[in-house]
Amino acid sequence: MGKRYRAVIASVALVVVLVGIAYAGFGATKTASVLLSGLTLAALYFLLAAGLSLIFGLMDVLNFAHGTLFMIGAYVGYTAFGNPRLLLNTLPLFLALLAGATAGTIVGRPLRAWEQAVRRRLTAGEASGNGREVLRALLARLTPSLLLALLAVALVLWGVRGFPLDRLVAFEATATGGAIPTAEAQEPIPRMLLRLAQMALAGLLAGPALARERREQGMWKEGMLAGAIGLVGLLILLARDPLEGFLLGLSVDLRFLLALTAGAVVGALLGGLIERTLIRPFYGRPITQIVLTLGLMFVGTELVKAVWGREGHPPMTVPSLFAESCRSESLAAWLTEHCSSIDVLGRAFPTYRLFIIFVGGVILVGVGLLLRYSRLGMIIRAGVQDSEMVEALGINVRRVFTFVFALGSALAALGGVVAAPFVGVYPEMGGIFQLQAFIAVVIGGMGSYGGTAVGALLLGLARAFGDVLVTSGIPIPWAEQALRASPAVARASTVLIMAIVLLVRPAGIFGRKE
Amino acid sequence: MERHLLEVQDIHTFIGQFHILQGVSLAVPEGSITAVLGRNGAGKTTTLKSILGLTPPRQGRVVFAGQEIQGRPAYEIAAMGVGYVPEHRAIFTDLTVAENLRIAERRRGDLDRKADFIFGLFPDLKRLYRLPGGHLSGGQQQMLAIARALVPDNRLLLIDEPSEGLAPILIQELMEAIRRLSEEVTVVLVEQNFQMASQLADRYVIIDDGRFVRSGPMSELLDDEETVRRYLGAAV
Q: Which of A408, A509, A415 is nearest to A455 (CA)?
């Protein structure tokens, strides 16, 4: 405990000293706005770093695809905001796939159980490793369910062939408030129904591979669930025209809320899927995991480029809550005026950036409360230390892994959506923010939630002050000219901080894990 | 035939490429304390982990309360009523004593129902209730680890090296606690300290080099100096 207190005191002291220097050099007004800029960056870094830290802490997985999820979140949010039509045309396909897979896991269970039994028998004497046994082990792994899953992938590819994605994705028209030309971009309903059927069949084929071996109860529930998911998909498709009218009729603020939700949900689903299918087989094999998540980063980035194009997009339209062209005197005044900027000690500061800080704060507190006071949070904290022991207590820790991966991915994707009106959307944004988030996690101490928040804060502030150092320089009392640095120094400042922190505390400020 | 709560039949367990267990069998009657004995590296810990499914055996059968459990995930086996007190305690140092106990609940209210029994065995824990587990001494951590396994309604306790690193006076206290809790649950005990094992256990199983050697009532082993010296390197 003593060490942790010292770490807290040291970081607080560091921040106070930095802010003090800035205050002496710039005066209160400029210091306040630089501080707020730093907090804005810190909030975005934190949204990414929180998931990275939780995932590493609990599962020892360094997720290099985290920035990609951030970027995908930004694109999904951007699209949901500007062109809800894409959502209406693609969601039924995903739902059909999901419904098929859910049904498939029930139907495929006996096949899976049989396979596992055969596999156990065949691999019984594997370790000696002579030729015949290796062949048998290979055969045991090349199972019917795997072949069916490959067939399912082929069926999915066939099912999406010719889908008019590029026409559906062209959304700039509505991002600025124009109308969407509807008719020719959407496919006729019968064609879509065929695609839906293909997706459902593909899901069904992939089912056995996803099925768990046992669990007799709950078949009814799962069957109903599969039916319900499929039905929702079908209904969305059939009602796409009225739904589109409804979505486009929403106010800009509500559409922004839709964008946030869509981004977070897609992030959670993608994260959960990645954990269940790709990460799970490789726990305890760090090299494989790193190569895997690095690969996912490249694949994800290229997929985004294939769908949305190589070029980025300028910052998303700011929701109208933050868009009136005026300057509010105070937060209370902003509540009625919705000005795009607010008066901070005589200087204008964009209100949307305050919103980013607000989101960061809400997530920080919300996830913190979850970790501290819920049973799930208690399990996560215990699992960070020793997940095998958690399992030995009778807790399905794998399910907790999936949840944490999905939660972390959702936070990253949410961060992407929140960032979109601030920095725009472009394929490289994931890598840029991920690098900073990694540094924040390392500074704070891998696996420490509070440490990650402190790390993100230090980094955001350093970045903001570094930018000032470059643009206007810091006046020094005894020198004639202000101290100015080159842009490279500002960019290097975060890495410099990391180096210093690691020299003093190799495990990070709050870290215990190596 | 005598009714056994746990039966392990000729299990083989691999860790990586290493064939650690090469045929271990044991039968544990309900209500007994069974000591698993053997030298360092004989496979005692792996035997416990194989029963629980943490290192699933690749061959052989494990039957608990009449059901085959080999190959099931560890959390399912534990939830059937198997408690585990691992080597080096493995309590959660960041969680408070209260949280360390509550995390083991399988149903809401388990801890409240068992509180009297647990604090009767380990009165110290009541005083330390709000402290982080990391602040406890080695002996207190060992007691917390055992208490944690007693929170849910377990029928079988797997206890690995409880006396390791404890002062003799603490060992006495611990033995008394294990004797008392064995009136409620069946115990499989791995123990290097032959004195302690021989005083506590009703039955013994000897493992050597990953293989079953022999088993029987503890009284029989105490008369067999030759076996004790040969496989345990200890004097009776």
A: A509
How do residues B153-186 score in pLDDT, each as one tens digit? 889 999 998 888 888 888 888 888 888 888 889 9
B116: number of Cβ within 10 Å? 9
Whether the CB of B33 is below 8 Å from some CB of chain A: the reply is no
Looking only at the bridges linking them, the beta strands covering B156-160 and B186-190 are: parallel
Separation CA A357–CA A464 (nearest Å): 14
A384 close contact with B: CB closer than 8 A: yes
A391 contacts on B by Cβ (under 8 Å): 54, 73-75, 78
**CB pairs A-B closer than 8 Å:** 72
Whether the per-residue pLDDT at A1 is higher than 50: the answer is: no
Helices and strands counted in chain B (H then E): 10, 10
A80 pLDDT above the threshold of 80: yes
Residue in A157, A164, A147, A155 with CA at minimum distance from that of residue A100 = A155
Q: Which of residues 121-140 of A touch B (CB under 8 A)?
A: 123-124, 126-127
The residues that bridge with B18 in the sheet, in sequence order, are B15
ipTM summary value: 0.90
* Domain map (residue ranges) of chain B: 31-44+72-232
- Judge: A391–B99 Cβ closer than 8 Å, yes or no: no
User: How far apart, in whole angstroms, are the C-alpha atoms of residue A391 and residue B232?
Assistant: 32
Torsion of Cα atoms, B89 then B93 then B96 then B102, to 10°: -50
Tokens of B114: 């068992």
Query: Does any CB of chain A come closer than 8 Å to the CB of residue B67?
Result: no
pTM for this one?
0.86
| CATH topology (fold) of B31-44+72-232 | Rossmann fold (3.40.50)
The DSSP call for residue A483 is: B
B54 touches A at CB < 8 Å: yes
- Residues of chain A with Cβ-Cβ distance to B135 below 8 Å are 1
- Indicate whether A321 pLDDT > 80: yes
DSSP code per residue over A16-64? HHHHHHHHHHH-HHHHHHHHHHHHHHHHHHHHHHHHHHHHHHHH----T
In chain A, domain spans = 2-108+143-504
Contacts of B15 in chain A (CB under 8 A): none
The C-alpha atoms of residue A312 and residue A315 are separated, in whole angstroms, by 9
Model confidence at A410, in pLDDT bands (50, 70, 90)? very high
Write out chain B residues lying below 8 Å of A384, CB-based. Answer: 94
Query: What is the Cα–Cα distance from A407 to A69, expressed in whole angstroms?
Result: 12
* Cα–Cα distance for residue pair A498/A443, rounded to 1 Å: 6
Using the Cβ of A222 and the Cβ atoms of chain B, whether some distance falls under 8 Å is answered with no
Q: Which of residues 394-433 of A touch B (CB under 8 A)?
A: 394-398
Q: Using the predicted structure, report yes or no on whether residue A221 has a pLDDT greater than 60.
A: yes
